[in-house]
Amino acid sequence: MGFPKDFLWGGATAANQCEGAYQEDGKGLSTADVMCLGAHGVKRKITKQIEENEYYPSHKAIDFYHHYKEDIALFAEMGFRVYRMSINWTRIFPNGDEEQPNEKGLAFYDRIIDELEKYHIEPLITISHFETPLALQKYGSWANRIVVKHYLRFAEILFKRYKGRVHYWLTFNEINCMSTQPWVSGGIESDDESIRMTAAYHQLLASAKAVIMAHHIDSENKVGMMYAGHFAYPNSCNPNDVIATMDFMHKMLFYCDVQCRGYYPAYKKQELQRLNIKLPIMQGDLDDLKNGTVDFVSYSYYCTHVTGEKTKGIMKGMNGLDTGYKNQFLPKSDWGWTIDPQGLRYSLNLLYDRYQLPVMIVENGLGAIDQLEKGEVHDDYRISYLKAHLKELEKAIMLDGVDVMGYTMWGPIDLIAASTGEMKKRYGFIYVDVDDYGNGTYQRYKKDSFYWYQKVIQTNGEYIHEED
């Protein structure tokens, strides 16, 4: 057993969940900046503008903006070979549609990449990670084709600025969330499926055009797509449950199909026709989709679902995890997400069999309530979770032959939760002393899992078998 010698070990964060400094150095407001603090099982409220009596977690987050040198040094101490990060669109174009970029915003990311280079850590950059410029609401956000143009201007600046310094890119984070969380995914609040599918089409087109551009600017660029890892088991062998599960997966995987294969699959075309939804396809678009397929597949993996004939449409409830069924065979996290290590192996095989492209796990981790006592956090539950998942990842590589590029755990340092904005839902190897309302010293502490992951990387994965 074992991992490839060039396996990319690391961690992943998102700008809006860690940076803070929401108005510093000319940054504009994004969709994330008007999302309030939620609570355990309570969805975050969207205010569309800053209101004095509300608390917005992204405004300060863990203040990575002023702690990035310290934090990257800790990543390097663990031995990171890659760091997945995102660039906040509104730091570069505060309103999203300016002709010229904000140099102070670019300079901030220059400094981050400088630090990564100092420690020989490869950047993996997500261009758009759940923070569409709020000012683009005047166009209807991604429902309007003009936003494709503004996104491509943003992407071009990044590709040219970091040519030769950044080799791995993701066009959109969890692009299929346009079907489950459209505000988060692209500043769309409508329940109208026609509007959502129009916005999705524009993002898929923008992604394809960005891939073409990235390859033209630097032939060394590798550009991937990123899927929110929704994977479902049928509730039973009843054919109705199996067909319903197929339908559920079609609604999720069509985003991958377009980005990996270069065209809308037949099943999606038929569905759009049944719903009388006509996509705004213009001359040249289909060629762009065909020519702008991605180089690799990346995805998040936290849990699996059970679906069947009771599952209607996509999903409902907090984070869209309510399918109408429960999995009696799996334990759950503190936030009710199933813990399914074998599902990771299953998902890797499913995606690799489907697309025959290299695969990368760019988010996987356990959100839990950690206790800081005398400067220490004993998170054996997180170590157990990660060890079990990495063993299944290893099986997918060694037993099944899946071409896996790397693994970036979410999130290596505590940050605000995308789903609720909470700090108490902690994922990190590094504890940050701040509570749900921004109170605390912001001091960083190494958890037990920090040292465990350090040994995993040092041994290229062999350490996961220690003490078995």
TrEMBL record:
Pfam (any one): Glyco_hydro_1
UniProt keywords, alphabetically: Glycosidase, Hydrolase
InterPro entries: GH (IPR017853), GH_1_N_CS (IPR033132), Glyco_hydro_1 (IPR001360)
A single GO cellular-component term on record: cytosol
An individual GO BP term: carbohydrate catabolic process
One MF annotation (Gene Ontology) recorded for this entry: beta-glucosidase activity
UniProt cross-references to PANTHER family, sorted A to Z: 6-PHOSPHO-BETA-GLUCOSIDASE ASCB-RELATED, GLYCOSYL HYDROLASE
Family: Belongs to the glycosyl hydrolase 1 family.
Name the record gives this protein: Glycoside hydrolase family 1 protein
Organism (species): [Eubacterium] hominis
